[in-house]
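Priority: low. Protein: Conserved domain-containing protein. Input follows.
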Amino acid sequence: MITEQQLDVVIGSTAVGPDGKLGTVSEVYLDDETGRPEWATVRTGMFGTKEAFVPLAQADITGDDLRVPYDKETVKNAPHIDSEGHLSPAEETELYRYYGIGTDSSAPVADTTRDTVGHGTVGHGTVGHDTSGPTTDNAMTRSEEHLQVGTRRVESGRARLRKYVVTENVTQTVPVAHEELRLEREPITDANIGDALDGPAISEEEHEVVLHAERPVVAKEAVPVERVRLDTETVTEQQTVTEAVRKEQIELDTDDAVRRS
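Result:
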């Protein structure tokens, strides 16, 4: 059982069940008549966005942990109640029934409600209701939610390399040579008179000349030209996240006769 003297340790502690961490304790609800701590709200879910009520009847403090006999699934599925600082008899009855806690028939639930501590709300009939106890001093603590934004790595797409064959026409110019006939005549001179008179004086004969020409020859060869690989790089960009956060406001409420300076 948690006592009033332990409230400063309970609020902000880590609630732990039989199967591990449940969340962070944000508020403790006191009995209006006895002032004893009866319920705690535990922030669960990603970034602690949900709050669940957990009974303190069988809870105890070990170091910085609030140990309760309820597992994660039980606390997660507890009735969702927007108490706004006070539990109604019907809401309390619903929670009792869910956690299997019996109520005393001689003290009807309708006569017992709860007030929160730990976030600046004032307990019934007390002054300076704060995290360290119901009547510590004449000041209260004002708290507010701060947005905690993180990142999570997810798969955004895939890419793959695929090689395929295409055919294209390539045009190149190459020089080719060929032989052509050219008729040359030379006069009879002392230098060639011997060749001119070699043979019969009058005769018939023919000379054959073979002409040659170059033709383009095409051959294809596969050669490596480049290597291609897939790689990734990390690019950081700015994204704006908007979320509603709650904060407490403290105002002064006095009678008309009270003088304010």
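The beta strands are 14-17, 20-31, 37-44, 50-55, 60-62, 65-67, 86-87, 114-117. Residues 163 and 228 are 10 Å apart (CA to CA).
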